[in-house]
Write a structure and sequence with these properties.
Strand order of the largest sheet: 29-35-32-33-31
Helix content: 10-25%
Bound molecules: 2-acetamido-2-deoxy-beta-D-glucopyranose
Distance between the termini: 25 Å
Largest sheet: 5 strands, antiparallel
CATH architecture of the largest domain: Orthogonal Prism
CATH superfamily of the largest domain: Bulb-type lectin domain
CATH class of the largest domain: Mainly Beta
Number of helices: 6
Strand content: 25-35%
CATH topology of the largest domain: Agglutinin, subunit A
Shape: globular
Radius of gyration: 27 Å
Number of domains: 4
């Protein structure tokens, strides 16, 4: 690996330097001959593309999980673009990938069981080769390609990698995992490129905008070739007429990737060759709350701008720590006819994508009666201009981005709604009488980050000394400055203090980081 490519000042990247030294021990080869193999235990068993942009070998994460992968050699955090079998990692001992004599490339686990294989049992296969494009190919002695990783994308598409009706980009389940998640990018049966959330409970298409038809979204369903591709300049074209260009288009040497991210957004990235960081150059959705499934059933999503999930009054998080499962009612949701029903106002909230019925020019009262009369109706919204009414099934609520103020959810008065701010004037949810207080709401409202902070704080308070080793990237093999790491983690935790006033200013953060790094 050419160290000239990584022009990162070593002083400012105490962690990084160690990682790069570690990587640079690998010898560059881009070919694996028939009958040979790569071993998980040997760090130098890596194929590198001739121009060194891509590397291919075993990529390890966590305690003992390794994947046969292709990644960008020079991105700061190792960016994996392809994996052989993302849902079944291999053991850190004894696993290997072999180009067998019968022509198949096979990934085996410690016990010899097959984790993945190419179905190329042809004695014509002469070698495996990692190309400059990031494509791993099996070639015959004449150079003809018999199998290529480009035909089996994981969550990422690279320049000149053809996207077809047979391929799909499937997001990781969450950051910190490589397993298949629920969001994907694909050509739908009507020839249109779409994004879908396909989870255990609901499945729903959220891009392009489901409120418009194919042509309203600027696409066509007439061309059944179903192919899409983007070039090195960052120009994407598809047979359904989806087209976009990266703003840095024209710069040929920029490394790019199109990735179906774990948060449900599809993004085109450009690599900044000086920092090793990825810059977003295009994304399908500008507001993540429009991604279905982010907050799960019955929950409210707020763009802050990062999406933040919460439960409406009378509901609580179904599985603390996992917003995908949404919120569940704290009351008996099977309402009987005789039971008293009360509506609660949720200002600036839209119920997106799950409408049960729609009526134009109706009064507020008849709108409410319609909802009461249909057992499937959980809520309704009423818009004053033209008196449109929407009845909704029980699905994800959505908070409109314009609601910045601390709005009181759950005004018991039906007619007390704000008529000024948003397109949808009012939002009402139907609850089973009595328990509409917000009790128990915030107590369960804990994200992964807050849990992490809480756990680390407790460890520090209890005088545990091993906590820093536990949270620093294991790939550093313990080669880092304890005091620097401690400072950085403590700084990070102070930035996410509940109490806004306890958070440090940006200036003091930068100051503290510079001081910490100057110690090295
Ligand atoms: C090989 O074939 C098996 C069985 O048909 C299939 O499950 C597997 O996905 C194929 N592998 C590749 C890499 O195409
Ligand atoms: C259909 O799309 C393909 C790929 O973009 C393109 O080459 C072809 O010309 C299109 N066909 C028509 C009839 O527009
Ligand atoms: C980094 O990218 C710029 C274009 O943005 C290019 O001019 C420059 O040569 C690149 N540097 C290296 C070391 O590749
Ligand atoms: C909920 O209401 C139904 C119908 O009124 C009743 O059969 C059921 O027992 C109630 N469940 C609880 C947990 O109160
Ligand atoms: C929608 O509401 C109207 C009354 O406004 C009713 O006649 C119609 O049956 C409803 N449709 C559905 C699918 O519930």
């Amino acid at each position: 690996m050419g160290s000239s490519q990584t022009s990162i000042p070593p002083k400012k990247n105490c962690f990084l330097t160690v990682l790069f030294l570690f990587l640079s021990t690998s010898s560059a080869q881009n070919v694996l001959r028939r009958g040979s193999s790569l071993s998980v235990e040997d760090d130098s068993d890596i194929l590198t593309s001739p121009d060194k942009t891509f590397s291919c070998g075993f990529y390890g994460m966590g305690q003992n999980a390794y994947w046969f992968s292709i990644w960008f050699t020079n991105s700061k955090d190792r960016t994996v673009v392809w994996m052989a079998n993302r849902d079944r990692p291999a053991n850190g001992r004894g696993s290997r990938v072999s180009l067998r004599r019968d022509g198949a490339m096979v990934l085996t686990d410690v016990d010899g069981s097959i984790i993945w294989e190419t179905n190329t049992t042809s004695t014509d296969v002469g070698r495996a080769e990692l190309l400059d494009t990031g494509n791993l190919v099996l070639k015959d002695p004449g150079g003809k390609i018999l199998w290529q990783s480009f035909d089996f994308p994981t969550d990422t598409l690279l320049p000149n990698q053809l996207f077809t009706k047979r391929t799909k980009l499937v997001a990781r389940s969450h950051s910190g995992s490589y397993a298949s998640g629920y969001f994907s990018f694909f050509f739908d049966n009507d020839n249109v490129l779409r994004l879908i959330y396909d989870g255990p409970d609901i499945s729903s298409i959220y891009w392009p905008n489901p409120d418009f038809d194919v042509f309203g979204n600027g696409r066509t369903n007439y061309n059944s070739s179903r192919t899409a591709v983007f070039d090195e300049m960052g120009h994407f074209i598809s047979s359904d007429q989806l087209q976009f260009r990266a703003p840095d288009t024209g710069l040929l040497r920029i490394k790019r990737r199109l990735t179906m991210d774990h948060d449900g957004n599809l993004r085109l990235y450009s690599l900044n060759n000086e920092t090793g960081l990825w810059v977003i150059s295009w994304q399908a959705l500008s507001q993540l709350c429009n991604v279905h499934g982010i907050c799960g059933i019955n929950s409210i999503c707020v763009n802050t701008p990062d999406p933040k999930c919460s439960c409406p009054p009378g509901y609580e998080i179904t599985e603390p720590g996992n917003w995908n499962k949404g919120c569940k009612p704290m009351f008996n949701s099977t309402l009987s006819q005789s039971q008293q029903v009360k509506f609660v106002l949720l200002p600036h909230v839209d119920f997106w994508g799950f409408d049960l019925n729609f009526s134009a020019s109706t009064t507020f009262d008849s709108c409410m009666k319609l909802c009461l009369g249909d057992y499937r109706c959980k809520a309704f919204s009423y818009r004053l201009d033209g008196g449109r009414t929407l009845l909704h099934k029980r699905r994800a609520f959505q908070w409109l981005p314009s609601a910045e103020s601390e709005t009181t959810i759950g005004s018991p008065s039906m007619y007390n709604f704000n008529t000024k701010k948003t397109r949808w004037k009012a939002w009402f949810a139907k609850f089973g009488g009595r328990r509409i207080s917000s009790e128990g709401r915030e107590e369960h409202d804990e994200s992964d980050l807050t849990r992490f902070v809480r756990v680390v704080k407790r460890k520090i308070q209890c005088g545990e000394t091993s906590w820093i080793e536990e949270i620093v990237d294991p790939r550093l093999n313990g080669q880092f400055s304890r005091s620097q790491a401690t400072t950085i983690v403590e700084l990070g935790m102070s930035c996410v203090e509940e109490d806004r006033n306890k958070r440090p200013t940006m200036d003091s953060v930068v100051q503290a980081l510079l001081e910490c790094l100057d110690e090295s």
